[in-house]
Amino acid sequence: MDNEGSGTEFVLEARGVSKIFGQNRALNDVNFGLKPGEVHALLGENGAGKSTLIKILTGAYQPDAGDVMLGGERVQFRDPLDAQSYGIGTVYQEVNLLPNRSVAENLYLGHQPTRFGFVRKSLIARNARVLLARYGLDIDVEAELGSYSVAVQQIVAICRAVELSGKVLVLDEPTASLDKQEVDRLFEVIATLKAEGLAIVFITHFLDQVFAISDRVTILRNGKLIGTRPLAGLTRTDVVRMMLGKDVTFVPAVTGIEEREAGPPMVEFDACGKVGKVKPFSVWIHKGEVVGVAGLLGSGRTEMARVMFGIDQTDSGEIRVDKKRVDLKSPAQAIAHGFGFCPEDRKAEGILGDLSVRENIIIALQGKLGWFRTLNRDEQMEIAGKFAEDLDIRAHSYDMPVKLLSGGNQQKVILARWLATDPSFLILDEPTRGIDVGAHAEIVRTISRLREDGLALMVISSELDEIVAYSSRVVVMRDREMVAELRGDEITPSVIVQAIAAQPEGETA
Amino acid sequence: MRSMRLTRALNPQTIALLGVLFINWLLFPGFFDVTWQDGRLFGSVIDVLNRGVPVAILAIGMTAVIATKGVDLSVGAVMAIAGAVAATMVTEGYPTYVAVPTALAAALACGLWNGILVTYFAIQPIVATLVLMVAGRGIAQLITEGSIVTFSDPALIFIGTGSFLGMPMPVIVAAVLLVASVVAVRSTAIGLFIEAVGVNRVAASLAGIRSRLLLVSIYTFSGFCAGISGIIIAGDIRGADANNAGLWLELDAILAVVIGGTSLLGGRFSIAMSVMGAIIIQAMNTGILVSGFPPEFNLVVKAGVIILILLMQSPLAGRLIEARRNSRLLSGKSS
After folding, report:
1. Which of A332, A359, A374 sits opposite B208 (nearest CB)?
2. ipTM for the complex?
3. Cα dihedral sign, B113-B117-B118-B123
């Protein structure tokens, strides 16, 4: 246990909490303690269990095992409103207020002071002014909230949460849509709150920000607690290593994948990029080669994939397929050049939930064929059957809705969808996220097999073991920029971790 | 296997239609009488089909729109425009074979306009089509110059009131359109693409479906259907009434689609079932008229029946039926 002392020093504490969704353990025996007057960063990649833990602490979920303790006593929150009445407030990335009402009304929405049933507008405005002044915000509180910047709206949301609850404040990625100055302004407010003795949970993807304001950090991975440490004495490399689960002493099972520089590349992205999303990058991939992409969430890795697949159009450089220059204005055009893309968010961007397994598998091929060259039912069944068997997709029937399959099988369906189009270049964005161990291993094997079959693949993954196992080159992304390209002996988890963590030059934390 | 097929044939729509027809027969014993007169069929049942045509045709186009998570509120107004164009042109001496295609072209243009607003300008369908729902009647009035244009063009009147092979001409037109659109949608990949876009438009476009072209085509087709419907109504009343032709029929068409089991959330759809929905609505209207009740009852009864059908389709009903089946299975095992 990393936590020193007894439980009583914590305002809010989770003791051995677990949460199970279906067959998935989202949270496994996790301890988390929050002291008054600290900013406690909660870190972990997608699916690590951050949001599940927060939802348990704020009453949105009930734990399946373990206890939530408030001031040393066991509590059970019915819902977030109940948790709020115990002093626990939450502010989300998206401001959950009413942009078309005034700042003051938003601050007191739901608990307006009234006289004879009428809202006392002037009193609300006066209170609001006093409240905001405490945090150095001097604005017209009677103007519409929506007329202010997102940062001001965030601060208003924070003030509201503090005013309503006042013991614990959970900030769930509050800085995701703010620029540098706005972040600084928000941090001043957080510092004020901290000085007042509030306990603050801070969730973010930005390591700089963690180091800028946090006192302690708790890291989760795959639903398990990796550790809680005081931030003083930790380096960025330590933190990344804990998040991605790599020890420096780790010796990878070298699989000896050579680069296939022979012949021209299958695809080349020459100084392609998208302003505001990802800085220009140059990547080329040969037949029979896997290029791994490493980087934390928000590092620009998905944005790079979107440019490559024509979802976002590059505004610089050029794209070449088989040495011929091509324009990619849409996914349909990319597919026509033999591209395929398995998106990271399977549910929102991958599967067609209500449609059958068969239809989900043939949809991209049919899309390529167009409206009129129709695959009849028998042909569809044959294609679906072939690839489902190939990838060992377990479904009672190919006519059942794909949404009823497990995550791993859904991922295989999307992979089958692309293999059915006979692609030459596949982009896989986190292909093994959120799926069970067995399916995980199968997908990793499939990636290796496809490479041997002569496909060009680009695989984005947070699993460094995985990347090391199948990549012949590794591209590292940080702060929306391609910062390194590793090859040969450099491809080890520890080198990748260092490349991800390196402090950007000329930037003050 | 046979019970499977039986339960599929006994879907809520069929049960509802049979129920409505049965009640009609109770209230008006002559309901199913069909006679042959002057080379065509007459009777209440034929009347249900004939009167149901305008909404049925609208429902054909509306099904595709709703399957993509959209809605087309403008179809009633587009009917008025198409009727106004056809009527005005024949009264000005153009032959029917010019007037009817021009009216259809106007309707297509209306649908295209909707489609462009929805896809290229990304306006919510309900708002985008509301524009033409309101403005369309104004346009129709401009075409008819504010008056009800009557005509005596025999070919146009034949479309609305004539008969072919013993059936009323509108029923023939609707049947041909129904068959043609079902074939067009199901024997090509269009149906699959519509459902894919309706279920998850982002995932569908990432799978390479050109969703914009598809959506524009669907709204254009909905306009086309409204045009046919408008011409039939104009032929039927031998005139174009810009104010009243097709008034509120967009709502009946949406209702027909929903009764037919296509979800307003998009996805799976059935054009044939939507047409069945339109016939159910008309069977109720006709039933109330022929059984001698005052027409005021019409709306109330209609509302009641619709609530019933929707309840039968609701997830709650599905769960209840399943729970009962399961409990019966269990008790059967234990005994």
Report:
1. A332
2. 0.85
3. negative
List chain A residues with pLDDT less than 50.
1-7, 247-256, 504-509
Touching check for B195 and chain A: CB below 8 Å? Answer: yes
Nearest 10 degrees: Cα torsion B25, B29, B31, B34: 140
pTM: 0.77
Instruction: Tell me the per-residue pLDDT of B88-127, one tens digit each, with 9 for 90 and over.
Output: 999 999 999 999 999 999 999 999 999 999 999 999 999 9
Tokens of B132: 């033409």
Those of residues 259-318 in B touching chain A at CB distance below 8 A are: 267-268
Q: What is the DSSP letter of B34?
A: E
Report pLDDT for A262.
Answer: 61
Average the pLDDT over B56-66 and give the result: 96
Burial pattern A296-334, b for ≥16 Cβ within 10 A else e, equals bbbbbbbbbbbbbbbbbebeeeebbbeeeebebebbbbb
User: In this predicted structure, what is the pLDDT of residue B332?
Assistant: 52
Contact A34, A10 (CB under 8 A): yes
DSSP states along B231-251: HHHHHHHTEE-TTTTTTTHHH
Give the CATH number for residue B278: 1.10.3470
Q: Does A374 contact chain B (CB < 8 Å)?
A: yes
Q: Are A109 and A159 in contact (CB under 8 A)?
A: no
Q: Tell me, yes or no, if B205 comes closer than 8 A to chain A by beta carbon.
A: yes
Taking the Cβ of residue A358 and every Cβ of chain B, the question of whether any pair is shorter than 8 Å is answered with no
Kindly state whether A326 is in contact with chain B, defined as any CB-CB distance less than 8 angstroms.
no
Per the domain annotation, does B203 fall within a domain? yes
Residue B218 lies in a domain: yes
Cα–Cα dist B92/B99, whole Å: 10
Nearest CA in chain B to A337: B208
Q: What domain count does chain B have?
A: 1
Verify whether the Cβ–Cβ distance B203 to A348 is below 8 Å: yes
Contacts of B196 in chain A (CB under 8 A): 352, 355, 359, 363
Question: Which pLDDT score is estimated for B31?
Answer: 83
Query: CB pairs below 8 Å between A and B: how many?
Result: 79
> Is the CB of A313 inside 8 Å of chain B's CB atoms?
no
Burial of A186 (0-12, 13-18, 19+ CB in 10 A): buried
Q: List the single residue in B195, B196, B202 with the smallest CB-CB distance to A348.
A: B202
Q: Which residues in chain A are closer than 8 Å to B205, comparing Cβ atoms? A: 330-332
What structural domains and CATH numbers belong to chain A?
A: 7-100+144-234 (3.40.50.300), 262-338+423-501 (3.40.50.300), 347-422 (no CATH)
CB contact A118 to B (< 8 Å): no
- Contact flag A343-B206 (C-beta cutoff 8 Å): yes
Q: Which run of H or E residues covers position A438?
A: helix A437-452
pLDDT at A504: 47
User: Chain A residue with minimal CA distance to B263?
Assistant: A354
Instruction: Please give the sequence-ordered ranges of beta strands (E in DSSP) within A193-311, or none if there are none.
Output: 199-203, 216-221, 224-230, 267-274, 278-285, 289-294
Contact of B184 with chain A, judged by CB distance below 8 Å, is answered with no
Domain, as residue range, for B211: 42-292
pLDDT by residue (tens digit) across A408-455?
889 999 999 999 999 999 999 989 877 776 777 888 889 989 998 889
pLDDT digit string (tens) for B195-208?
Answer: 999 999 999 999 99
Interchain CB distance below 8 Å, B189 and A369: yes
Q: B229-247: b or e for each residue (b if 16 or more CB lie within 10 Å)? A: bbbbbbbbbbbbbbeebbe
Min Cα separation A347/chain B (Å)? 9
In a domain, residue B146? The reply is yes
Cβ contact A462:A486 at 8 Å: no
pLDDT value of position A246? 56
For A285, phi then psi, to 5°, come to -135, 130
In a domain, B197, yes or no: yes
More confident residue, B314 or B147: B147
